[in-house]
Amino acid sequence: MKETKTNTDFKLREIQLSDATDIFNIIDRDREYLREWLPFVDITKKTEDTEAFIRLVKSKGTEHDEVYVILSGEKIAGLISYKGKDKFNHKIEIGYWLAKNLQGNGFVTRSCILLINNAFEFMGMNRVQIKVGVKNKKSAAVPKRLNFTFEGIERDGEYLNGVYIDLEVYSVLKRDWNKTKTGYEAF
User: Fold this and answer.
1) 17 and 40 in contact (C-beta within 8 Å)?
2) Quick one: pLDDT band at residue 180, thresholds 50, 70, 90?
3) Is residue 76 part of a domain?
4) For the domain that residue 75 is a member of, what is the CATH number?
5) pTM (two decimals)
6) Disulfide: which of 42, 65, 108, 151 matches 81 by Cβ 3.0-4.6 Å?
7) Is the residue at 186 inside a domain?
8) How far apart are CA 167 and CA 83, in angstroms?
């Protein structure tokens, strides 16, 4: 999925090295807000840290996350990615974050729809999952809105700010998505 244009005020495209400064500036500006749920915030101290991350995910010859920028107009609003692709078992996870001032516009929900459709229709996946920190109500609202199934709690699933936190695990299967996605195609 190189670039996805939509009929709305946003689009997705693959992350590029030239995005590093803008992404770092969002992280730096929203540092206190984002660090509550994102483990990479405290180790992202300068633009070069963001550049190193982008180089890693774009490197050839190894399998890494597929990372996309969420654009509001031409401005970077956040990131969304495929994580932990398991080709053998046909499953994948989606992770995301958004700038604080651009939340509440449906960007993450609509971006997830595009990635879910792509995973099922073009990547041969059977299962898509989203994990969110327990008590992260805003992030958990996305899989709930998309009719994912809550599967339970992954205890100590993430190391965040010096402590282990539990994660809520949500999933949708291809057969269920095909039944429930009506109404989302317009995105």
Assistant:
1) no
2) low
3) yes
4) 3.40.630.30
5) 0.89
6) 65
7) no
8) 15
* Beta strand pairing call for 91-98 and 3-5: unpaired
Q: Which domain holds residue 155?
A: 3-180
Q: Is residue 86 part of a domain?
A: yes
> Could you tell me if 187 and 70 are in contact, meaning their C-beta atoms sit under 8 angstroms apart?
no
Give per-residue pLDDT as tens, 2-48. Answer: 555 444 688 999 999 999 999 999 999 999 999 999 999 999 999 99
Six token digits for residue 164: 């282990």
For 38-84, write each residue's pLDDT tens digit: 999 999 999 999 999 999 998 876 677 899 999 999 899 999 999 98
57-82 CB burial, b ≥16 within 10 A, e <16: eeeeeeeebbbbbbbbeeebbbbbbb
Query: What total number of domains does the chain contain?
Result: 1
